[in-house]
Amino acid sequence: MGKIIAIANQKGGVGKTTTAVNVAASMAATKRKVLLIDLDPQGNATMGSGVDKYNVDNTCYELLIEEKPIDEVIIKETSGKYHLIAGNSDITAAEIKLMEVFAREVRLRNALAPVKNYYDYIFIDCPPSLNQLTVNAMAAADSVLVPMQCEYYALEGLTALMDTIKKLASVVNPQLKIEGVLRTMYDPRNRLANDVSEQLKRHFGDQVYRTVIPRNVRLAEAPSFGTPAMYYDKSSTGAKAYLALAGEILRRGKANQVAK
Ligand code: ADP
Ligand code: MG
C-alpha cells in the first residue's frame, strides 16, 4: 500500500524542498513509483523538478478547489523521474478559498484516495507556515518527516512543532505518525551543530534518522538547473546522502511491517 509522507517544518529555509525533491528522485531511482506534491506557493519543488511553474496547466489549485480529477492534474514528465502535482502562486488563492469550501481539511486526502495505492510513496512539500494547506497535508499523510538544522534554539522549535503536529493530528488525523527527524545542512566541524545533534538524539531517540544531510553546494546549485542533485552530480555528498535517506526510509518501512 502507498505511503503518504508530509515534509513539514513551519520554519523556512530548513531544507524541506531540497529534501522533498531529492528524496523523491532517490526513491524513484530505486524503481518505486513516486508522486511529489508541491503545496508551497513559491513553487520551488516544481522548478527543482524541471517543470516551469509559470507555464503549467494545472496545480494543487485545480486539484483542491476546482476538484479536477487527479489524473488530469498529475504531471508525468519530470527531471527526477517521479510524477508531480505542481505548485505556484495560484495556491495562495487556494489557501484563501479553502476557507469557504465544504470539508476543507480533507480536500487533499480525498483527492489522493484514487491514486494512493498506485504509488509506493507520495511526498508532500509543505509551505513554511501552519496554514490550511499544511492542515490538508497533515490530514492526508500517514506520517510527517521533519527536516531541521542543528542550530541554537532548534530543539525548542522542534518540541513546539511536535506539539503542534500532535494537536493538529488529534483533530484531523489521529493515525498520523512521526516518520522521522532529519538533520540537514550539517557541518560536522561546527561544535554547536554537534552539541545540538547529541541533544536531539537524547530527546527524540530513534525518531532521528541515522542519515545526516551535509551542507553541500551541489544541493543548492542543482535547482537552478531544474534537477535533483543525483542527476546534476551523482558523486556529490548531497546526492549520496539523499540516496542513503531513501534506503533508510525503505528499511524502516519494512521493519514496521514486520512489527505489525
Ligand atoms: P525550505 O523548503 O525549508 O524553505 P530549502 O530546501 O528551500 O528550504 O532550502 C533553503 C536554502 O538552502 C536553499 O537555497 C537550498 O538550496 C539550500 N540548501 C538546502 N539544503 C542544503 C544543503 N544540505 N546544503 C547546502 N545548501 C542547502
Ligand atoms: Mg520550501
Automatic annotation (TrEMBL):
Boundaries of every AAA domain copy: 3-178
Pfam families xrefs: AAA_31
InterPro entries for the chain: AAA_dom, DNA_Partitioning_ATPase, P-loop_NTPase
Coiled coil (UniProt feature): none
Superkingdom assignment: Bacteria
Cleaved signal peptide residues: none
Family membership noted in the UniProt record: To B.subtilis soj.
PANTHER family in the cross-refs: P-LOOP CONTAINING NUCLEOSIDE TRIPHOSPHATE HYDROLASE, PARA FAMILY PROTEIN CT_582
Official protein name in the record: Chromosome partitioning protein parA
